[in-house]
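Here is a complete protein record:
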Amino acid sequence: MTIASACIRHFCINYLKENQMGIIPDNGYHRDSNQSAIALKFLRWLSHKTGLQVQHQESPEGEKSVKVSDGSILRLDGYIKSIGGVDQAIEFLGCAWHGHECLYRPHASKKKVS
């Protein structure tokens, strides 16, 4: 018995209910991040419309990660380096995508990143 098969057996015995079936996602379980199709479309449109280089998951540089003041790492939907001396982080419907139950404020500023 492999470790993987032992884990599946443990899961089936201890967590699945009778007549219930576990379904593995098409791409399997992995640590890659997902980004919504609508967010990617918006970021591509923004880049095209403004002529600015928008870094996102599918750009050559990949997704931009930043460390915030509490030490945690945020992966940004989009990132624009230095507009008027200020870097811009873009979060596209993040709370809706991640299932957060917070008050939606579309134009609110968030945490300052380093």
